[in-house]
Amino acid sequence: MRTDDRVLAYGGGWLDRAAALRGDPGWLVERLTDPASLVLPLWRDRCLVDSERAPVRRAAVDAVELLAGADETVFLGLDAGRAVFAADLSGRDGHEACELAGAAEAVDVRALVGALGAAEAAVQAYAKGLLHWHRGQRFCGSCGAATVAGAGGHTRSCAGVGCGRLLFPRIEPAVIMLVEAPGAPERCLLARHQGAAEDSWSTLAGFVEIGESLEDAVRRELAEEAGVAVREVTYQGSQAWPFPAGLMVGFRATAASTRVRVDGEEVVEARWFTRAELRDRVAAGRALGRIDSIDRHLLGSWLDGRG
Ligand SMILES: [Zn+2]
């Protein structure tokens, strides 16, 4: 990986988000009446797909009924000049949503990754995250009045008298770390998390708390969950993770000692693995994390001796 985030699923900056244009309601109306513009329908965090499991894409001008039946329609961006919108059909039951969209079923984008191209997976994940945010922000947290979408769905503003609070889509950053043992032999720390299968090992991760830097969060999570103190903490790369609002920030850290003491709650076991042990696991058919996760890339780059 190291900083080549294009190989990580769900990122890549495939659309021009046209931030300077999307605040203009007239421009957005023109885009919706442009025969080239597309609408991607979603339902309750899921892609609506056709019988071949390809996400439904409708020409905006042919999707009048779909757009009228949507709870929210947001502008995602421009794909080589062609506007791409997402429409949320979550207020409908599943059958109605499929019928309005002309879809066969609703499927989680993570179940489609690998089958979809990188750009399509990223755009579907982006749509899912943005529409999810809208569903959770219908009312103002300050005064309780209803909020209304603006800027093509990239803001919401409170309609309450004397309030007018402006809301922006929220991202919840989480750190994920590959920890190396000090000295030789070269080993990395993997953990078995609560609820995980008996022989399922992964890197440690956790949410960043208010008042912490990313590096602070790395140090705290490792101390809390595995009883490990670390010296250097080095940024490796990041991954969009809109499930529903995450941003995964990957680090490599070097432990001060090989002593491990797990919390027994989130992490039930943690131990050090050599590269040979991990290669043996791969050879025996054990996956190093999910194919779409930064966890797999952190482990893969360590296994290759990179970074
Ligand atoms: Zn308000």
Which helices and strands appear, and what pairs or packs with what?
Layout: H1 25-32, E1 38-43, E2 46-49, E3 58-59, H2 64-68, E4 72-79, E5 82-88, H3 94-101, E6 105-107, H4 109-112, H5 118-135, E7 147-150, E8 155-158, E9 166-167, E10 172-180, E11 187-193, E12 204-207, H6 214-226, E13 230-241, E14 246-255, E15 267-274, H7 275-283, H8 294-303
Parallel strand pairs: 1-5, 10-14
Antiparallel strand pairs: 1-2, 1-3, 2-6, 4-5, 7-8, 8-9, 10-11, 10-12, 11-15, 13-14
The structure holds zinc ion (ZN).
| Shape label | globular
The strand count comes to 15
Secondary-structure element series: HEEEHEEHEHHEEEEEEHEEEHH
Structural class: alpha+beta
Which small-molecule species are bound to the chains here? zinc ion
Number of helices: 8
Poorly predicted parts: 1-6
Strand content: 25-35%
Radius of gyration: 22 Å
Task: Please describe what this structure looks like.
With 307 residues, the chain is α+β, with helices and mostly antiparallel strands. The chain has 8 helices and 15 strands. It has helices spanning 25-32, 64-68, 94-101, 109-112, 118-135, 214-226, 275-283, 294-303; strands at residues 38-43, 46-49, 58-59, 72-79, 82-88, 105-107, 147-150, 155-158, 166-167, 172-180, 187-193, 204-207, 230-241, 246-255, 267-274. The strands form 3 sheets. Strands 1, 2, 3, 4, 5 and 6 form a 6-stranded mixed beta sheet that branches. Strands 10, 11, 12, 13, 14 and 15 form a 6-stranded mixed beta sheet that branches. A hairpin with a 4-residue loop joins β13 and β14 (246-255). The chain starts with 24 loop residues before the first helix and ends with a helix. Residues 1-6 have low confidence and may be disordered. Zinc ion binds next to loops.
